[in-house]
Design a protein that fits this description.
This protein has about 300 residues and is an alpha+beta fold. Helices cover about 30% and strands about 25% of the residues. It has two domains: about 110 residues, Phosphorylase Kinase, domain 1; about 130 residues, ATP-grasp fold, B domain (D-amino Acid Aminotransferase, Chain A, domain 1, 2-Layer Sandwich), CATH 3.30.470. The strands form four sheets. Strands 7, 8, 11, 12, 13, 14 and 15 form a seven-stranded antiparallel beta sheet that branches. The protein has a four-stranded antiparallel beta sheet with strand order 1-2-3-6. The longest helix is centred in the middle third of the chain and has 24 residues. The relative contact order is 0.17.
């Protein structure tokens, strides 16, 4: 594990075809496999900021490796490489850019739904609950407060949006998209992974309020893909500050959003540059999440 690396925002690997560049992750074709690279880009309000967060890509990748290892005994995943593996010889020239932030994975066919699990009432779930006492069609008890822990975790799938926000859908709608058998498998796997991770993280001082999983099909088998239980794909709250009835502090881009809300900015590109103090505070929260979960220091 490298202790230092250059901040990576825009990545090109001469000789390797880039298949996709998302808000954070770049995907390259290695022939039989894919190369996933988590950059240090950060987005807010669906806009990518012009400057990134140092070590963010490494945190996302190493936390994902950590959870893949903890869940592989009951949930197959897409990993070909391990966290401790050296880069293949043909990628060694790019070690400075890829160190700690890349993984080599199987070429799975992603499901056309997001697999969301909610253990607490927050975000769009809280908004829907106030209007209808449901979340994605799941009936919930009356009188729950914002950020309240749910009686049991619920599976609340969503569509995948190429731009803008994903749209919450019911389980029946998800089954209509991917088929009932796959939807049932994805729901059972999502709930098991979430419950396992929630119980572990709580002992480490982190509440995982909700999270988003990606699954894919590989040789007819449902496997876990993409990133897993990171501050970007999950809502992490510090357990020692948890107080139901209001919004919670978090281990993610909270400082970025708070700063942007103070600006006279219409939340449309181009996004404004983040000041050094916002970058530093955000970096420290990502690193703290990694350290709390793994018990190790990244740098």
């Amino acid at each position: 594990m490298p202790t230092e690396s250059k901040t990576v925002l825009h990545l090109e690997l001469p000789g390797f075809k880039k298949l996709r560049s998302g808000k954070v992750r770049d995907i390259f074709d290695l022939g039989e496999y894919l190369l996933f690279v988590a950059t240090d880009r950060i987005s807010a309000f669906d806009c990518i900021m012009p400057n990134g967060i140092p070590h963010k890509g490494q945190v996302l990748t190493q936390i994902s490796y950590f959870w893949f290892a903890r869940t592989e005994s009951f949930q197959p995943n897409h990993l070909i490489s391990r966290a401790e593996d050296a880069l293949p010889a043909n990628l060694e020239p790019f070690a400075a850019e890829l160190g700690g932030r890349s993984m080599i994975v199987k070429k799975a066919k992603p499901l056309a739904i997001e697999c969301v699990v909610r253990g607490y009432l927050a975000g769009s779930g809280w908004k829907e609950y106030r209007a209808s006492q449901t979340v994605c069609g799941v009936n919930l008890p009356p009188g729950l407060k914002e950020s309240a822990e749910l009686p049991e975790p619920i599976f609340t799938p969503a569509t995948k949006a190429e731009t803008g926000h994903d749209e919450n859908i019911s389980f029946e709608q998800a089954a209509g998209i991917v088929g009932n058998d796959i939807a049932e498998q994805a729901r059972a796997a999502s709930l098991k992974i979430y419950s396992t991770a929630r119980d572990y993280a709580r002992k480490r001082g982190i509440i995982i309020a909700d999270t988003k999983f990606e699954f894919g099909l590989f040789n007819g088998e449902l496997i876990l893909i993409d990133e897993v239980l990171t501050p970007d794909s999950s809502r992490f709250w510090p357990a020692d500050q948890y107080q139901p009835g209001k919004g919670q502090a978090s281990f993610d881009k909270q400082f970025v959003r708070d700063y942007l809300e103070t600006l006279d900015w219409d939340k449309a590109p181009p996004a404004p540059a983040l000041p050094p103090e916002v970058v530093a505070r955000t970096e420290s929260k990502y690193l703290e999440a990694y350290e709390r979960l793994t018990g190790q220091k990244l740098c």
